[in-house]
Amino acid sequence: MHKHLIMKSLRKLIDSIKPHFEPGAKLGAFHSTFEAFESMFFVPDKVTDRGCHIRDAIDLKRTMFTMIIALVPALLFGMWNVGYQHSLAIGENWPLWPAFWFGLLKVLPIIVVSYAVGLSIEFAFAQKRKHQVNEGFLVSGLIIPMLMPVNVPLWMVALATAFAVLIGKEAFGGTGMNIFNPALLARAFLFFAYPSRMSGEAAWVVPSEGMADAFTGATPLAHAAAGAMDKVASAYDLFMGFVPGSIGETSTLAILIGAVLLVATGVASWKIMLSTVVGGMAAGYLFNAVGGSAYMTMPPWQHLLMGGFAFGAVFMATDPVTSAQTECGKWIYGFLVGFMALLIRVLNPAYPEGMMLSILLMNAFAPLIDHIVVGTSIRRRMRRQPLSTTKN
Amino acid sequence: MPKVIKIRKGLNIPLVGDAEKILVRPKPSASYAVKPIDFWGITPRLCVEPGDTVRAGSPLFVDKQRPQIAFTSPVSGTVADVVRGARRALQEVVVIPDAEMGYEQFEAADPATLSREQVVDMMLRSGLWPHLTQRPFGVVADPEAQPKGIYISCFDTAPLAVDIDFALQGDDKTFQAGIEALRKLTPGEVHLGINAEYPESKLLGRIKNVQKHYFSGPHPAGNVGVQIAQIDPINKGEVVWTMRPQSVLMLGRLFLKGIYDASLVVATAGSGVAKPRYHQTIQGARVDGLLDWAGGEGGIELRIISGNVLTGRKVDSMGHLGFGDNLITVIPEGRYHEFFGWLAPGFGKYSASRSFLSSLRFGKRFNLDTNYHGEARAYVVTGQYEKVRPFDIYPVYLIKAIMAGDIERMEQLGIYEVIEEDMALCEYVCTSKIEVQEVLRRGINTMMTELA
How many CB pairs under 8 A join A and B? Predict the structure, then answer.
């Protein structure tokens, strides 16, 4: 009943101000913005007029919203972990809520900045191009903070977001047209532009006076890359996520909960997730076989728990726009993402986190993979062609 | 048991309002119409004026480019109206029926004894020719062409579709006569697509001189295009023809009795029909005579569709059945704003995706309306079309090639093998609400101009 009342008065309000935003009216310049908000509150009353008379209940808002729900466990855990890691750093052990509250206050500003900057640009471009505002950034805007080290300055978040949306997306024509995953682009931009702020021990844990001496903020990946295998956290800690790292990436468990939702709803491709894991395992076993450094002889499954592997496999490699689009291509693409991630991680000392670069690299190759897959279908068709055809 | 071709990709949309298998014989319709807009690629030239009297089988209009192809009246009566649309394009020719049906007389003959030319001539003059559809492109067949084969799908898997076994009210002799006529038209075979999920009907069981193929699986397994792609896909330069099973009966009657008897069985279905059932009527009948509804219960606005919900054409209650349509679907219009509709758990919403809780309600049927459930967007989600497409075709790539106007690529990606109905499910499931059927028709038109 209550909801009904709000709904009715809101509908009335929207209908009363709508004419002002029609193209040509006084506020016609803000048509896209108005429409974005209207369609957020109310699914449009548009009915089919040609083609299919009925349409599936799904739309892009639903898809993106499901994605956001899937991100929530990892996000909440990440917030808690920010507080938890800080408490470790000062030699204390905070209970659940203080740790979460501390993390919330640290992470929320990053989220706000990411959304504010990204959505402003999206709305401005939609307005300029007289397009509708695409829902894609609602997900990117949340993933960007989750990929950041907690100590990232807000201006850097703003800069990276602007770069990702402008160069990564709008330059290609907006959501659906981009080649690289915008959130990863934001992360990569900072990684290469401000390497000192994005890696090293200081980046991952909120600093404070009186850090405990024994504490080091280095991530498991940094330890492993340095060959300090004894300092890498236990498999349990890695799986649960009680380790320093980017805000959203540490807990394999929380990410798995998201993965279950994405696979159950069919919103993200299980083929890519699975083949990414297979690719990672394959590289891991290959390293085992070759041997050499301590890092190379690490059990392959442990790689899956470290750094951004799980987060990348579930939330980033599966981005439908930038991954392979053919079903067969998805298997190849995912495998290579996982394989390359470990290759970069283990063999390239300059980049402890291979997942980000691996996915960006495969983003660039995804169209080629699809081209080859579609090409085989085309060749099948052309081979079928009877030689006797003379017409046309 | 003969070999069954299993179609695995597809979707049966669980709509409420299946027609009950009761055949009613309603009073003759107030009027009957033939609509040039039901045929792609023809330019109509009128042969009659309002006030002219016609018989069943008298030409109403012909194709300007191929004037031998006549589109004839399904009933005898008086031409009441010639409806024109934008730029005076001919929309429909309406005939008010006489009390007593009078037929143009053609010479009844056993088609097996006739030459191809004689069969073609008889079909052209009587108005049966337009019942033959050519693939590629889904246009009226070209009498000069030699089709590689003729395909008849004897079952329909579309939402709320007619049970064709029930609708084939006729004896096997008539059907066989139609088949014999078709056999004259092709140097190849006449192929029947038969539903393997039910026992073969008595009528079809007795049909000889055809190649039978058995199919099982979800919609679009019953689409003739899907069956052709499984049996013998169409290559560039090749032509096949298709015909609907009820038209085969009409063809049989033409040769057995020498008349164009366009009677057929039409089902009414959908949540907007009070008593969904089968009706013995005549092609092009006005739909109000078949709908015994109360005019939309409780003031709900309804949509009447000649055909099924995926590919049919919207008509008003005074509108007429489309050519070859054997189904009238009535569903609610969806003109409403849904408050945070994309956020709702969605127990009552049907989606082929699994992102609504309704996907836990197995076996439930849904009362779906015409709401878009969203707005058009660029392609984002992938792999969606592939789940409902039983072809060796990459639908999104084909659609993008059409949007880009790349003719060579359209060819490579298989545009010859599909028409709108084959990709209608892609449009239904599309998250980005792309008008797949319209885009595809644009591509087909481009190909036709290119090859002309």
Answer: 216
Distance from CA of A349 to the nearest CA of B (A): 36
Query: What DSSP designation does A263 have?
Result: H
Contact list, A44 vs chain B (CB under 8 Å): 337, 372, 374-375
What is the pTM for the complete model shown? 0.91
For B199, counting Cβ atoms within 10 Å of its Cβ (0-12 exposed, 13-18 middle, 19+ buried), the class is exposed
* Chain B residues close to A55, C-beta within 8 Å: 371-374, 428, 430, 433
In terms of C-beta density within 10 A (0-12 exposed, 13-18 middle, 19 or more buried), how is residue B121 classed? middle
Q: Mark yes or no for CB contact A43/B338 under 8 Å.
A: yes
Rg (CA), chain B: 22
The verdict on B242 and B125 lying in the same domain is: yes
B428 close to A (CB below 8 A)? yes
In this complex, is the C-beta atom of B220 within 8 Å of any C-beta atom belonging to chain A?
no
Percent of chain A with pLDDT over 90: 54
Q: Do A50 and B438 touch (CB under 8 A)?
A: yes
Strands B44-46 and B59-63 come out as antiparallel
Residue B353 pLDDT more than 80?
Answer: yes
Residue with tokens 């709509």: B15
CB A237 within 8 A of CB A252: no
Residue B432 belongs to what domain range? Answer: 384-451
- The per-residue pLDDT for range B273-306, each reduced to its tens digit, is 988 999 999 999 999 888 875 455 566 889 999 9
Q: Confidence band (pLDDT; 50, 70, 90) for A44? A: confident
* Same-domain check for residues A215 and A97: yes
Q: Is residue B374 part of a domain?
A: no
Mean pLDDT of A298-326: 93
